Amino acid sequence: MAAQERKLPAPAVSQETQAYWDAAAKGKLLVRKCTSCGQAHHYPRTICPFCFSDKTEWIEASGKGTIYSYSVMRRAPVPYAMAYVTLAEGPRMVTNIVDCDFDKLKCEQAVKLVFKPTDGGPPLPMFTPA
Amino acid sequence: MSIKGKAYIAGIYEHPTRLAKDISLAQIHAQVAKGALEDAGLTKDDVDGYFCAGDAPGLGPMSMVEYMGLKPRHVDSTDTGGSSYVLHVGHAAEAIAAGKCKVALITLAGRPRAEGMATGTVPRSRGGTPTPDEPFEFPYGPTVVNMYAMCAMRHMHEFGTTAEQLAWIKVAASHHAKHNPHALLRDVVTVEEVVNSPMISDPLHRLDCCVITDGGGAIVVVAPEIAAKLKRPKVKLLGAGEFIKTQMGGKVDLTYSGARVSGAAAFAEAGVKPADIKYASIYDSFTITVLMQLEDLGFCEKGKGGAFVADGNLIAGQGKLPFNTDGGGLCSNHPGNRGGLTKVLEAVRQLRGEAHPAVQVKNCNLAVAHGTGGSLGLRHGSATVILERE
User: Fold this and answer.
1) Pick from B120, B89, B118, B320: which is nearest to B220 by CA?
2) Which domains does chain B have, with CATH numbers?
3) In terms of residue numbers, what domain contains A96?
């Protein structure tokens, strides 16, 4: 099945995540990392969900990852591939796999970061086979 | 403090409708409340505790309390999606054990079918102030079905679970639904029919999904001294557990559900083991939901759920673990897209010996009812109760 373009709604940007979406507009994926426990998490929070320290900072993700799981939503106006991708930095994130043959997707497949425009908001980080 | 033996389920009622075009949401709540109180042999004025969840119109319990003319001294509107009402049974027992009420009424109602809601296939934003997770999920198109499908996909990848094994869960439910005159789908289906039904979101087919129905139900939970005065068979609460399973800050693990925690807590409180259970009501929004919960409740090893559910093992009279003998959400009813309450109802029918004779489990003295609410693949509430026929 060929991947078609679909209209993506804009994410609701909050005070806490403005920097994440500003970076997305520049083609960068940020991950929030705790300097107390050393662990990265997603979605980003100012207080670490693992150790509850407020000593967290942004790091730039490499853009490399693997598909943890996926599902091709067939019953949609334009079918799309929902996925969890495991980032090289550790956390797994909700995303889409795009620009590929959906029938050839596999768990643990290597993927790389791309951005897709949204309807009036910052672009969304998505992934495509590496 | 334990709730073991501190509360009884005295009344139940399931609305017979599956399409409520001419009944209001509040009206369904009142009809099921009336039905459950009459079943128990109690009246509205006996109710001093009221429990409802997000399906009830209004702010928490307030509008429904007013509409039904209740005077509760204890209320609880904890909403964990479809699992809420299983959780409410546990909370009602806690309130009764603490002396906060003696007759607790739990109601559920919904009209997604009459309202033409695209329940499973359209991403939904809750509106208002977004939840912190929403910007990182909603724009990508998470639906009910594709998030459960991702759990199934990972389960297949890690454990070799097959579409045919998942299909057996629907097949078993259909064997039960044929005996339920109120069930939406009463035709027995085969494994082939399930795996050849249209793919909705890989690997889940249309027949891996539950029905979308209107209706509702109610449960009356009472103190032991009240239960002793009533004429209905006594169904005692032995244990209850609850949990919220999340994405854990990105340490996502789709291979297990919150049942691992809520089930363990409920079994520990009850002092029984999965092997002791004669009948299981297992939340069945999708076939994969059932398979994962059976593993997580301890009915089989993690990863062995596929083999466990295959070959009719869940069919009453044939298999080792009869499940959802009313046809469950997969075939009979999933009122308001919230299937937890009906799980409790069929467990109570089985323990009373009031299930359909064709699916009644012999000497059914111990049952589990388990619910999952929200999204198995994003974040979900999990609630388990263990019930005993006294």
Assistant:
1) B89
2) 8-116+209-389 (3.40.47.10)
3) 15-129
